[in-house]
Structure formats: structure tokens, C-alpha cells
Amino acid sequence: MFTRSVAHRIPLRAFKRWAHTTPTMNYRSVTEEDVAHFAKILAPSSVLSTLAPVSTPASELSIYNNDWMNKYHGKSTTVLRPKTTKEVSEIVKWCNERRIAIVPQGGNTGLVGGGVPIIDEVILNLGNMNKIRSFDPVSGIIVADSGCVLEAMSEYLVPHHYIMPLDLGAKGSCQIGGNVSTNAGGLRLLRYGSLHGSVLGLEVVLPDGTILDQLSTLRKDNTGYDLKQLFIGAEGTLGVVTGVSILSAPAPNASSNVMLALPKYENVLPLFREVKRQLSEILSAFEFIDRRAYELAVKHGQGRALNDEDVEGAECFVLVETSGGKREHDEEKLNTLLESLMEADEPLINTGVLSQSPLQFSQLWAIREGITEAVSKEGKAYKYDISIPVASFKTVVDTTRDHLQSKGLLRDDAVKHVVGYGHVGDGNLHLNIVAAEYSPEIESALEPFVYELVQSYKGSVSAEHGIGVMKTHALQYSKNATSIDLMRRIKTLFDPNGIMNPGKVLP
Ligand code: FAD
Ligand code: MLT
Ligand code: ZN
């Protein structure tokens, strides 16, 4: 049965640094016989394939084969868009028996190349599984298909006075299954914690096609190993998440935000302490934007620029959000904070721009959320998403810039900008190097330099975006050999044939 298909060794090309770690397993390309079989399992509109009998034009597969940054490119011939868990199970079983590799794909907004093929793996896109299965207005527990778009879930909850416990700039496209599979952090982690806490249950199709039903709606369940945790952040390497049960949070009655302009980075930490002390239970976000990141956001039309006098002399900005139960109470707290910050003998801030309306609230957030898009409009981004002590954010950005300067790469036709922004409250810096083009010269100047720098702070090379294909070789900077060995054994236990998202996460 296998003789007509071409066996691949993954990877065959592209990632030179993998030369010494080439996996030993073989995968098979999809054949016309496979496509004919998929067409029997799925509705006609759910099978896209350049192969007969379907024969979709290759251009229609492009959005599935290329990632959001247009940095990682696959050559899959076949995209499957199942509508039910049973369909997913049948596809996976077929692929496992024939050693056809699968890339689970959600909204394809990932930033580490995890959701696109390395060669021509089948793309299993979950976008057609987009139904809310149940919602309990007392507990706030929502159960949904994994292909539900995050923003659609948030909108579903509005009339019930609940909000999703996570929010990110990609909310309009990313899916809850992708969020769970990357253990996405985002803008609300400071308040609502990680998905390891708010996800209560999962339904997963295992690599042999078995449906693992752990779609619990219980807050407490100590019956042995908590298996669902393994799939949170597994980036599609252990199975396909098809259903998610998640605890939503009561919607705050009042939210406000203020953009604080700081004369120097050194003030960020004392400011964070003071903001926490004064705002305590109503503090819901504390986000960092350095001056260059702010300027890029404004240049590319993200949010509304602050007035010149508010920006003058600012080395960086912090966006503070409050979410609480009573508007007058929260506003009083925020105003008192601002007054005390401005009137201090040695003020930690130059100014604070307080939103006065829902529109201004959104405009301030748009500056912060829009940096990712601004960076990608400006050039090609090398994105390092790292956990390091907050006190070292500026040093790491400056050291990286100096390093690139010393290599003669800081020039308009090579590296245009080195910027920093991120989730200070979570110790998560987004170090972005914006280049004119992706080039081996820039990449080898950055790696392992950045990873060694992170390691010197005992940090993490991936705070929230995951490992994907980008950082498999860098896992060792944050995980010791024993941990990596255990991860590999878990992978083999779940996926002995190695069909599930090969070449991702594990080196
Ligand atoms: P995809 O990109 O499609 O896939 C991501 C990974 O998950 C891949 O490895 C894929 O194989 C796997 N996967 C997807 N769906 C499933 C499934 N159902 N079952 C098994 N595996 C699956 N990330 C953050 O953490 N915080 C942020 O603040 C943030 N902001 C962003 C802002 C912008 C503008 C953009 C473009 C990205 C941002 N991201 C952020 C990164 C990205 O949005 C998140 O990683 C998101 O969770 C990915 O969801 P997705 O549905 O797009 O997944
Ligand atoms: C963010 O915090 O804006 C996201 O993680 C995306 C990015 O790093 O650009
Ligand atoms: Zn982030």
C-alpha cells in the first residue's frame, strides 16, 4: 500500500542547524488514494488538495502553508477541515496507519512556525469546528469546539456578563484550541493566571485516532495524574485538541487605563511596586513599551499617538489597566495614584494619559496590542519571547543592540531596529529585532547570542509563544537533559510513530 508514495525524512531542507539532529523516522507524502479516502470521510468543501480527485489550485493552499510572519513555508498538498471530532479521529487513524505526518492548525497566528508544515505534512485545520457546546451562567464554565475563535467566544460571553480569562492581539483569528496548544499568555495573565489553571478539561484525538474525553466541567478533581496538562502547551505534538472546557471570569463592572510616560527604564520596577500597592485588587494589566516600540506603533497607525508633550523625554511607557466592581471607587484609586506619582519629590513618571471614554480606552490598548503588526509592517522580525528578571529588560535590549552594532549589522539595509515590549507584570520581555530581510548573517549574529544571554539570567527562551520549529535547537538553554529526555519519552508514549507535528518542540 505504501509503495506509490514518497517517503520523506524530515527535515529534508532549509534548517541547516538540524543537520546533526535529523529524526530517524520516515513519513509518507499524501497520495491520490489518501485524498480519495479523505473525500469519503469529509464533506467536499472540507478537503483541499492539489491532488486528484480534488485538484484544488495550489494558490488556495497558500494561507495554510505560510505562517503569519511569512517566515516559515510549507509545501503541503492537502488541507483537511473536519467538522466533528469523529471526522478528526478517522483522519488521524488513517494517517497513523499510513505514517502520514499531520500538522494541527488553528488560526495560524503562531509566532514560532509550529502551525505550518516543514515539508508536505497534511494540514489539519480546526476552523470548521467552531460551535459553543455549553455555557453555565452560574459557574462561568464554557465548553467549546477547539476551532472557536477567541474573540467570538468573548462576544458570546458579553450578554452573560463574563469574559474570557485570556486576551491577545491575535484574538480576531486565533482559536481556543491554538491558545491551549501554545499555552498562550497574553494581556490578562497578570489577573487571571495561565491556562494551566483556567482550562478545566479537554477533548483530544490521540495520534492513533482514539478520542480521549477529559472534557470535565469540575473545578476540583484529584483523581490521579492530570493528563490534560500535558496537552496545554504541547503545540500539537501529542494529539489534536478538539474540545475545550474553560473557566471564564465575571466581567468587571468598570475598566480604565492610563499610559504612563517614564523618564528612565530604572523607574519601571519601583513603579510596578507602587502601582500594585495602591491599586491592589483592581490592577489588571501592567504592560511595558519602550520608546522605539512606541514610535513604530504610531508610525504604522496603531492606536492614537499621544501628544508631543506627553512623549517628550520619555524613555519608555507603561500601560496600566484597572478592572473592578465600582467605577467611582476605581477612578478615585487611579486618580490618587496618579496624583501621588506626579507630586512625589522624585517622580517616577513624566506624565500619565488617562482614558476618558471607551474609545480612548481602546485607543490606548491599540498602541500596545498593535506593536506586533507595526513591527511586521516595518520589516522582517526576529522575535525573542523571553522570561528574564524585569530589572534586566533594558540591559538585554541594549546589549543585543550593541552586539549587532559591533558586528556592523545595525544599518538600514540589515537590522533597522531593536525594540522591547511585553508583559512586565509576568516578567516577559518581547525582544524584537526588525530587519530589512531575513538573512543567515543576522540570524547567526543573534543565535545563540540571545539564548546564551537568557541562560545567563536563568531565564526561559520561550515565555509564551512556544518552541515550534524556531526554537527546537534552543530548548536546551532552558530545559536540562533529564527534562528533555522525559519529554521525548512522553512523546514516544503518545505518538510512537511520530506522526503528530514532527520537527516541532523536541530537537
Ligand atoms: P496556530 O498558530 O494555528 O498553531 C499554534 C500551535 O498550536 C501549532 O504548533 C499548532 O500545531 C498547534 N495547534 C493549533 N490548534 C491545535 C489544536 N486544535 N490541537 C492541537 N494543536 C493545535 N501569543 C501569546 O502567548 N500572547 C500574546 O499576547 C500574543 N499576541 C499575539 C499577537 C499577534 C498580533 C499575533 C499574530 C500573535 C500573537 N501571539 C500571542 C501568538 C499566537 O497568537 C498564539 O500563540 C495563539 O495562541 C495561537 O493560536 P492559533 O489558533 O493561531 O494557533
Ligand atoms: C504581544 O505581547 O504583543 C505578543 O506576544 C505578540 C508579540 O510578541 O509580538
Ligand atoms: Zn506577549
List the helices and strands and how they pair.
Blueprint: E1 7-9, E2 26-28, H1 32-41, E3 47-49, H2 62-65, E4 78-80, H3 85-98, E5 102-105, E6 122-125, E7 132-136, E8 141-145, H4 150-157, E9 162-163, H5 176-182, H6 189-192, H7 195-198, E10 199-205, E11 211-214, H8 228-231, E12 240-247, E13 249-250, E14 254-262, H9 268-279, E15 283-290, H10 291-299, H11 308-311, E16 316-324, H12 327-343, E17 351-354, H13 358-369, H14 371-378, E18 380-387, H15 393-406, E19 415-423, E20 428-435, H16 440-446, H17 449-456, H18 481-494
Parallel strand pairs: 4-6, 5-6
Antiparallel strand pairs: 1-2, 3-4, 7-8, 8-12, 9-13, 10-11, 10-12, 14-16, 14-17, 15-16, 15-19, 18-20, 19-20
Helix pairs in contact: 9-12, 10-14
Bound molecules: flavin-adenine dinucleotide, D-malate and zinc ion.
What report would you give on this structure?
This protein has 507 residues and is α+β, with helices and mostly antiparallel strands. The protein has four domains: 124 residues, Uridine Diphospho-n-acetylenolpyruvylglucosamine Reductase, domain 2 (2-Layer Sandwich); 119 residues, Uridine Diphospho-n-acetylenolpyruvylglucosamine Reductase, domain 3 (2-Layer Sandwich); 118 residues, Alpha-Beta Plaits (2-Layer Sandwich); 87 residues, Alpha-Beta Plaits. It is 32% helix and 21% strand. The strands form five sheets. Strands 17-14-16-15-19-20-18 form a seven-stranded antiparallel β-sheet, with helices on both faces. Strands 7-8-12-10-11 form a five-stranded antiparallel β-sheet. Helix 9 packs antiparallel against helix 12 and helix 10 crosses helix 14. 49% of the residues are buried. The N terminus is likely disordered. The site of flavin-adenine dinucleotide has 38 residues, from strand 5, helix 5, strand 12 and helix 14.
